[in-house]
Each structure stands twice: as C-alpha cells, then as structure tokens.
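Example (one chain per record):
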Amino acid sequence: MTGLHLLDARLAEDVSEGLFTRGAQVCISLRDGRRYERAVGEDGLGRPVVPETIFRVYCTGKPLTAAAVGKLVDDGRLDLDEPLEALLPQLRALRGGVTLRHVMTHTAGLHRVSGLAVEMIPAAARDAYLASQGRPPGWRVGADAGYAELLGWHVLALAIEAVTGSPAGEHVRDAVLRPLGMHDTHFGMTRCEFDDVLDRLGVNLDLRGWRALPMLFERTERVCCETNLAHGAYTTAPDLDRFYAACLDVLSGTPRAGLPSLETLAELVTTQRAPARDEVLDRVCSFGLGFMTELEGHRFGGEVSPAAFGHSGNVGSSFAFADPVHGVAVSVVFNGIIDHESAFVRRPALVRAIYRDLELSGPREARQLVRAPRRRRFRHPSGMAR
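Predicted structure:
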C-alpha cells in the first residue's frame, strides 16, 4: 500500500520533534487485501525501529486475554454470567455475585488496585495481597464503572487456570497467539525466549519531564519473564494487526483459529457497558467484554465508526483497533509516554490522517454493522436486572 502521505508526514513530524515519541510502528490492513507497514525513529536505546522491534504495550494487550476467555466460553468451560465466587473462592472481591461479564466490563469494583504498587510487592506475596482486596463500600456491581487496570485481568488469569489446568500465559499463547501467527507477542517469556529476543527489545521513554527517561526495567529478565495478562504484553504493531485483521475476518463470517465464534466475538466487541462515567479513566465511555467500544468516547477521534473496537495502553502510547464498517485494522506502537491531554491530541490526529489517506467515509454516514446477541442482562447481586 502506497500513498499514505498524510500519515507519513505526521509520523515524520512527531519523531522529528520528539515531544510525543521518539519511535513508532504502524500497521494497517484493509479488507480488500491492501496492507501498510511503517517503522520510524529510534527504539529508546539509540537503534532504528524496525517492524520486528518488540515493545511493551501495557493494556493494549488486554483484548488478547478476552479472546482466550471467549474461546473457553464457546467450549462451555466458562460462563459469562455465572458468579465467580464458587470457581475462585479465595478472592474476597468476587463475593456477592460478581461474574466474568462484570469483570470484563470494568463494573466489578476491582479498580482500586494499582499495577505499579503490585509490581513493587515481592512475587511470592502478590497472590495473598490481591486475594485480600475488596470492593469500595457501596459499589453497585454491574452499574458503577471503574477501569480495573490489574485486578480484573488477574481474575481472568485465575479463571483460565482453574478451568484449563494450564498457566494462564501459556494458555493464551497456545489458544490465541500461536494459531494467529503472533510469534512476537508474549505474556511472560521463557528464559530462552528472552535471550532470543533481547536484541530486538526496545523501551518506552517517559517524556513527561524535562528530559526523556528510558524505562530500562522493561528489558529486564524479571519483568519480561513474568506473566502479567493485565498490562505486561510485549509485541509489535504487525502482530497486533494480525489479531485485529483476524477479528474482521470472523465478523465477516470467516472463522479463524485462535478466535472465538462469530456469536461470542460479536458479544466481546460490541457495547455491553453503556456509556458511563468511569471513576478511573475520568470520562464517559463504553466497554464491550475486554474491548473498548464506541471509540470516539475513548478519544480515538471522530473518524472511526461507532462499530469500531480496540484498546489503548499506558496513557495511549500504543493502541490498536478494527473498524468493521470500513473494513480496516489499525495498530500503532509509540515508544513515548506522555500525559493524557497530549495523548488525546496525538491519537486522533494520527487516526484522522490514516482515514483521510484511505479516503474512508466518516462514522456519521455509516450504520452499525455488528450487533451482539446478548445472552443475559446484567444482574445486580440482589438479583435485580440492571
């Protein structure tokens, strides 16, 4: 694919200025088979970024675990609406009727646990600490909204392990990543994998102060080899593109190994949590099951259609999405960590350049093409449907 002049100019300007990022990867796939791949700038260590450079993309990896859960739902081993307390009785926060649906829509009240704080706790003590956490007083499960950066996906990991008997990271790898050909994506590397990819590992740069600070801990063996389904994904833009392009295939009626059925995937990627003020994200926004939906509310810009779905990570330093109305998948990895306000300027500008280069119509002219069948409505712990 050639002729994406606005996108190329935007990337060149961002990298040259160095205010938003120092390097970037972009990968775009269209339903008609066209594909665009771009790598620019430096990897945080002074080396050129190439398509094979691996970065930590934080919460952008959350939908990969959601897809693994969806496959277990298809297999009948997990149920989105069964209370989790019987499966995971050790977790205090799940008492009172919390379900996978509540967890994956960020309405379970699991949002007060800080990912950074947990990473400072010795690994041997983390499970006990997380098991002891409760919900905020007065939290209305299924109604109140709070983005659960860490604890929600810890719950998903434990649920996966409880029904499969396999370590969660290995299950996601075998069920989702390998079937989709995502060989550069990792949730916890083995030591051999770490040794093999170390020369390709870049780092993010914290650009929020007077000088750029390379986040060198991202290349340490301990961090790379630790399974963290919540915000520990390492990947490339081309690998993320494989995932979202495959999602478009399934939604168009073509099954793909590594993804749930059409019915289940449609439920994951369409709004299950209506627009609501999120206590953590501090905006009115929607969620599917593990996916951000109605992406304009997540500051992806006005060009994306209402049917688009995806996720961002670490203050928007990386993001990826699929737009089934326009038949396009977009994956972007920046290695600059900036403030929210700046990220919400950078991301829409880049998406706008992509849509204008591709001559895609705006969402106001498009209809919602994907409608998810809903198995059951939310149920409050009291039994009242909400």
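Caption: The two ends are 47 Å apart (CA to CA).
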